[in-house]
Amino acid sequence: LEFRRVLFRSAETVNLTLSNPTGGATLGSPGTATLTIADASPRGQLRFTATTYSATEGDGSATILVARANGSAGAVSVNYGSGNGTATAGSDYTAVSGTLSWADGETANKTFTVPILTDDEAENAETVNLTLSNPTGGATLGSPGTATLTIASSSPAQFVVSPNDGYQVLVDSG
């Protein structure tokens, strides 16, 4: 017997039974068996398209891309989320989490957005940790499975110069 299919949707089973021996043959035990046909179609690896993403406070949000590579069989999904690096959720960005899904045969990149909050503080660039987790449908996590979003300040940096004689000069770098 030869089984050929372009795409298996999931593992399939066939029950085999030996019966009606001829020519004086007899059946031994067991006379039945189950054949399992494993799904050999690659489901793909789900991964970020870059290890770093960047945005400025004034941008309003950052768009993050996630790719499905090395396979497109079956429907798959992956969870995404954000976490504090040096940036703080609620004051520098809005925390996000959710699920991205691909249909059977779909390979187009999926996106999610991280809302960026603007403040009037002059500060150094801050980071948000991005993660992918819990792939479903037979997909696996590819590399990179983590990434960093860097948020640059939209407020000009200000420096205070304090000479020894007691007066201060405010210097605006913008």
Defining key terms:
0% helix, single chain, mainly beta, five-stranded mixed sheet, 174 residues, four-stranded mixed sheet
Beta strands, count: 13
Total helices: the number is 0
Strand order of the largest sheet: 4-11-9-6-7
How big a fraction of the residues is strand? over 45%
Query: SSE order, as H and E?
Result: EEEEEEEEEEEEE
Tell me roughly what share of residues is in helical segments.
under 10%
Q: Using only CA atoms, what is the Rg?
A: 28 Å
Shape: rod-shaped
Low-confidence stretches: 1-8
Query: Which structural class should the secondary elements be placed in?
Result: mainly beta
Descriptive notes:
With 174 residues, the protein is mainly β. It has no helices and 13 strands. The strands form four sheets. A five-stranded mixed sheet has the order 4-11-9-6-7, with no helix packed on it. Strands 8-5-3-10 form a four-stranded mixed sheet, with no helix packed on it.
